[in-house]
Structures are given as C-alpha cells and as structure tokens.
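Worked example 2:
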Amino acid sequence: IRRPPRSTPKPSSAASDVYKRQDIAGNLELAKNSISKLSKESSPDIFLLTEMFITGYPPEDLILREDLLDQAYEAINELSNFRPESFIVIGYPKKEGDSIFNCAGVLRSNSIITEYKKQELPNYEVFDEKRYFQPGDNPGIFEVNGFRVGLSVCEDIWHQKVITQLHDKGADLVLNINASPFHLNKIQERKKLISGHASKFSMPIVYANQVGGQDELVFDGTSMAMDSKGKQVLQLAKFEEDQAVVSFLSQHDGNILSDKSEVIPEDSELEEVYKALVLGAKDYINKNKFPGVLIGSSGGIDSALTAVIAADAIGSENVRSFMMPFKFTSDMSVEDADKLAENLGIKHSIIPIGEIYDSFQNSLECEFKGLEPDITEENLQSRCRGVILMALSNKSGEIVLTTGNKSETAVGYSTLYGDTAGGFGVLKDVPKTLVYELARYRNTISKVIPERIIDRPPSAELAPDQQDSDSLPDYETLDKIIELYVEQDKSKKEIEESGIERGILNRVIRLIDFSEYKRRQAPLGVKITSRGFGKDRRYPITNKFLK
C-alpha cells in the first residue's frame, strides 16, 4: 500500500512475482532484492510476496523435516528486520506442536505482527496439502493507514468462506498469495473468479502468484489486481519475474478504485502453453544443474518441437541433437533433421545404428530361432537409439529430453528403454494435435521448423512405409477420447454418446488402461492440461475394473 501524496486515505498494494526454488537462503535473498528494487522506484507500504515463498511450493515431504521448518522460520525472522518500517506479507510453513500450517505472515517492526493460517487445503489433482498441513480457522486482518487489510492463501479464494469472514470483519482490501500452477484456461478461470468475488463483496483483491518451474508443475505468475467493482486494473507478466505497485482510492460512494488505467493484454492460449513449456524445461534443466541437453532427432514433428523449445529455454549452444538412421529411415528425415539443426544453430551429429542392431540380432539369434519377426525387431531399433543417447548422457552429464507426446503416452505408442529413455519429457502432457498447433505458432515467431516436417504424415519409421495411422486412429479422434476418458473421467457409454465409433473407442480405452505400467516408468514432464499423467492421474496398474 503506497502512502498517498495527500491526506485522503488511499490504499494500494505492491505485488512481486518470483522464481520459486527450494533454496531458503536464495529465496530470502530474492525477497530482499525485490523489496529493495521496489523501494528505489516508489515507497509502498506493503510488499506482497507469494505462498510458501521462503521454501518454494510444493515442498512435498521436505516439509516434514524439522531442519527445513527451523531454517524457514529463521529466514522469516531475519526478513522482519530487513525493512522494519514497512509491511511485508509473505508465505511460509510453521509448526506448532505436532501440526504444520501454511501461513501468510505480516512482518513489521522486527516481528510478525499478524499470522494467518490457510483454511482451505486443496487435496485434489496435483495437490496433497492435507497430507502435510492442518487448516486454520480464524481470519487474518491488519491495519494500514486506517484501512483494514485481509489475508488469504491460494485455495481460500476458490471458496467463499474466508472472503466472507474478511468482509464480515470489515476488511477494505483482500491480499491473496498463491502458488497456483498453470494449465490450459487456468488464467481465464482465475480472472473470472477473482473479479466475481471483488464485485460481490465490494472489496479490491490483489492476487500475487508464484512463477517458475518445479518438476512437472509450471507456475505462470500473471499476478493481478481487481478493484471493488471487479474491474481488472493490473496484470503482471506471464511466465517471467515481474513486480509493480498498484494504488487504490476510497470513493465517496464507498467503492475503492485504482489509479491504474493500463490496458490488460488479451490472453493467447498457444502463447501461454508455449511459454509454459519453455519455462518448465528451462527451470528443470537449470535448477538441477544439467550443463545441456541431448535430443534424438528423427526428422519428425515431436523431436523438432522439443529441440526448438530446448533452444528457446537454455540457448542453442547448450542443445545437441542426434540423428540415428536405420535402413527404414528415409532420406527426407535425415535432411529435415539436419535442416532443423541448421535453422536453430545447434550441434547435430549422425550416428547410424545398423551395426549395433545387427550385433543385438546376432546375440539373440539362438533365442529367436524359429520365431517370426514382429514388433520385437521394431522395438529393438528404438532401444539401440536409447542406449546411444544414455551413453552420451553418462559421458557428458547432459540430460536426454524424451520426445513423446501425450497422445502416444496415453496409448503406449512408445518403447520402454527406447524412446522413453531419458530424464525429462517436454511434450509429455501435450496432445498430438496441439503439437502441430504449437509448431505452427512457433514458426510465426521465426521460421525454424521446416514446413515438410509439419506437413508430412507422422511415422515412427521402424518398418517399411510405416505411418502412425497404421496403428492408431486419426489424432483428432484419439485426442478427443483421451480428453474425455483421461481428463474428464467419462465412461465408455458417455464417450460413445459423443459420437465416437464403438470399435475405435474400445480399442483406444483398452490401450490406455493397459499402458499404465509404461507410464509409471517414463520420465516426468511439463504439465499443461487440466489432468496429466503422473501426480494428476493415479490409477493402479493391477486392477480388473479397467481391463
């Protein structure tokens, strides 16, 4: 809240997006730097940081460690001494007895003057807060320049209990600190929700959200502020660190409006998804200190988009691609993989697998004697490539990025210890139809993906004249089934009523159910849909209900 240049009470608030990391000392320094930067630009009363800022979110079972909790609270106490004349609102964990709470604290005058404990604990999708935290039950309110400011934490804003408490206690303004991960349409959902609360309760709401990648989750930032009429008056950057100051003025009619008049940029779904993938890859690679990445480049659309995202995330100089041709690999694929690397400025090598494959075949000759060639020989090609990439990874320390998409992952159209071998799957949660849209979107920025890669029919090239359509329905149909069955938990009957042909539907669902054991062994990857595989969808491998 910035002090007004006149005597009229004028509440305002400052929001800061920050990169999240489980680095308590680093996060403390990040908070100090952000506060110092804002202080040089203006003189805000309140510095607003995000949920669980001091530890990062989600800390998972690290939160059960006494030493982490002790260090986190020590850092909060140190921050309270940093700028004692101001109000600093920040998120952190706190243990009381046997219970741990997700707190929002108000720091001032070398102490914690108000401490609010999150009441609504999410325990769905990727969230497990009831595993770790106990809920609070009291509202958190503090006064600044005669204005009553209410606190809430993330999930609290998705319900009415806490905001009703704050309204009934006479709050003039609500601060909501968040660690809200991104998925498709999430930003629009937040805006509608927060605007509705602000207008219904006639209270401005300042929403500060974390930004950065944490394993498979990506936090988009997009912090915002709504005035008491529900009008959005501020939006911080998406998918990058940002901070700003926003002020509010109390009107004679009781409304509290902002002095901001900026135009809020329109949301672009493809741009948001692409930035989420870039940030997710960047933070996973950099925060885990990998010196670079290795990619098996097939000349196809998935490996092409993976390479482009990697180059955008960590720089072309840190990306290496490898074409590993076999007798079924077309000249077109070799040429396109080389052209892609040239366009991106990444180092590219060709390592034929013919002799390696023959060596495996010779070793297995006695065991395979009298058996007809089948998918085993196709998978062996993929496993030759996986062995090469992992050997290169061991030698260099660089991480292998797998290139499979959500459509393939869903139906098991992949080879264990072959194209699933690697450390991170950038496209793991991206349906194939969206892969094509993202490739075309990226080419509007700079044309790096050869058009032939986008236009040609997809193929694994593990057999003569092979195409994905030989084994799978068209991707529009497949992705529709995956959305309904995996993301929305629709039954076969409900999906069939949507117009999907029964034979195709039964085959796809059987493949999805059967492939759970493969998905458990695949690397994690960036989550961008409302329900991805992994933390989000936890189905038992051993069950009869689905088989």
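The CA atoms of residues 242 and 317 lie 27 Å apart. The longest strand covers residues 87-96.
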